[in-house]
Specification:
With 522 residues, the chain is α/β, with parallel strands linked by helices. The chain contains 20 helices and nine strands. It has three domains: 157 residues, Nucleotidyltransferase, domain 5; 249 residues, no CATH class; 113 residues, no CATH class. Keywords: Metal-binding, Nucleus, Zinc, Zinc-finger.
């Protein structure tokens, strides 16, 4: 591993609530290929000391000699995450062990939760803070009441989503009328009921009219494979169901008007308010598509890819909130939903500004550089100064004649001018076509190690930072992967070995399957 290594802490829940699995993963690149194997797996119970996870991770890094190689840590956005990072930093002198990147699939997932919160079933108690009865006087202040119902299956996510909705309501100072709020609640229940009605009819033509087009569509036009997020009433199914209903609506109206006998279909008919809300949320769902496509790639999504799409997503949500994207004045519930999604981002990232690590990752992409920020009205002078300072601190110039030095990068005097951050930033941006001709982004920078080793190494280190701590199959599943509990029937060390060895197959360490088999038989 010649460059930086990025630490990923993943988690799997066990069927037994008393314990779960913690998975220590490392990510790095070599010769233009990105790898993400497992170092080790451990069981964590409610009785484990608070320092157990930190000590376990520290032991893994020490055994593999990776303490000084770690550049960033990516783990889920939960209260204990900060404690883990602080504990690792306290145990070791590597300052980068405090450089934590958030799990952006978790961020986007909760933005989706906040956006769709008003579509979910009626709460257990009356949400008095979301509407105002014309003839009823109520002296209760909004801040005096808790939003006493769940918008998410998990308490941590639910609390954050509820806070995002409260802040959005307070920020916009909008009263959502009772009929509009009820209309939003009715939309998803009627869409769900329509799907059940369609699934039970005998007409194949009607089923094809409803299900056909959506099943043939792909989330992304990219040549790389994608996986559609799935889950009961999760983002993927909510989005797909409402999209199908929106496209089916003309056929739906014709059936009702013609009096076609489809049992139960009249109860699924949307009134004018509900139809407007459906159309507005359908448009809102579309603004998430680009970032969902990046996060759903079969390959590991990188931070620089997600940051760009997430920035665009926030701009589009602001347009919906301000009413400048829908073409007509949006309903109050749609505006609050868009603002709630923006607040979910703020609460997760802890700041409305891009973190420095995200800025550097975007700058080191040769098609972006400072121009990407300039087009978006950001202060490029401050960004340029910060990037150059980080470059000079982390990638110092070492002049050595004819020798290599493990503590720095070797440069000849005639290459000093070329291998500087100022020179890189001053050169024009490259087109995507040029990068593709070089074999892709990582291959391009691997080739540049010959002519500008310091700049290229910094680029490789930052462009390989992972954007999510969970694997592809769980990007929008709502969190940790649930195991079936069968691992409890396997020897502890055998299970750890099988999990680790399997993930290392195909990397430069274990390129052949025979090597994996031999290790497991030892």
């Amino acid at each position: 591993m010649s460059g930086a290594v990025h630490l990923i802490i993943d988690g799997w829940t066990n069927r037994t609530p008393a314990d779960s699995l913690v998975c220590v993963v490392v990510a790095w690149q070599e010769d233009g290929r990105a790898f993400r194997p497992i170092l080790d797996v451990a069981w964590v119970s409610d009785l484990s000391p608070e320092s157990y996870v930190t000590n376990f991770i520290s032991g893994c890094l020490e055994r593999y000699g990776l303490i000084r190689k770690i550049k960033t840590i990516c783990l889920r956005n939960a209260p204990h995450s900060e404690q883990v990072c602080a504990g690792l930093h306290a145990k070791h002198s590597n300052p980068y062990l405090q450089t934590r990147t958030v799990c952006y699939s978790h961020v986007v997932g909760l933005m989706m939760e906040a956006f769709t919160s008003f579509l979910r079933p009626l709460p257990r108690v009356t949400p008095v803070k979301y509407f105002q009865d014309a003839g009823v006087e109520d002296d209760t202040e909004m801040d005096d009441l808790e939003l006493d119902y769940s918008l998410s299956e998990r308490e941590y996510n639910a609390d954050l989503v509820q806070e995002a909705v409260r802040n959005a309501r307070r920020e916009l100072d909008i009263d959502i009328e009772r009929k509009v709020l009820q209309g939003a609640r009715n939309v998803l229940s009627k869409v769900t009921a329509l799907e059940q009605v369609i699934s039970q009819v005998n007409s194949q033509a009607l089923k094809q009219a409803y299900w056909g087009r959506s099943q043939q569509e792909s989330v992304s036009e990219t040549h790389r494979s994608v996986v559609r997020p799935r889950g009961s009433r999760k983002w993927g199914t909510i989005r797909d169901s409402m999209m199908r209903c929106s496209e089916f609506i003309s056929t739906f109206r014709n059936l009702v008007a013609a009096g076609v006998n489809v049992p139960g279909i009249e109860e699924c008919f949307l009134d004018e308010i509900e139809q407007n809300i459906l159309d507005e949320f359908h448009t809102g769902f579309e603004v998430f598509d680009d970032v969902v496509s990046v996060l759903s790639l079969q390959e590991t999504p990188f931070l620089h890819e997600v940051v760009v799409e997430l920035f665009n997503l926030r701009m589009r949500l602001e347009d919906i909130r301000n009413g400048s994207r829908l073409g007509t004045s949006p309903t109050s519930v749609t505006r609050v939903a868009a603002e709630a999604a923006l607040w979910a981002y703020k609460l997760m990232v802890k700041d409305d500004e891009l973190p420095d690590i995200c800025i550097i990752a975007v700058v080191m992409h040769p098609t972006h550089k400072l121009q990407w920020f300039n087009k978006r009205g950001m202060d490029t002078r401050r960004i340029e100064a910060a990037v150059i300072e980080r470059f000079n601190q982390s990638y110092p110039l070492v002049l050595v004649k004819g020798e290599s030095n493990q503590d720095g990068l070797v440069e000849s005097k005639h290459a000093v001018a070329t291998d500087s951050m100022g020179n890189y930033l001053d050169r024009p941006t490259l087109s995507k076509e040029v990068i593709e001709e070089k074999g892709g982004l990582l291959n391009y920078w691997n080739q540049e190690l010959v002519t500008q080793p310091r700049v290229a190494q910094m680029a490789l280190d930052y462009l390989t930072i992972p954007a999510t701590s969970v694997d592809l199959t769980r990007i929008f599943s709502g969190g940790q992967m649930a195991t079936n509990g069968l691992e409890k029937h396997v020897n502890y060390d055998t299970f750890r070995a099988m999990m680790s060895m399997g993930s290392w197959f195909g990397t430069p360490v274990l390129p052949e399957i025979d090597a994996v088999a031999n290790l497991l038989e030892m």
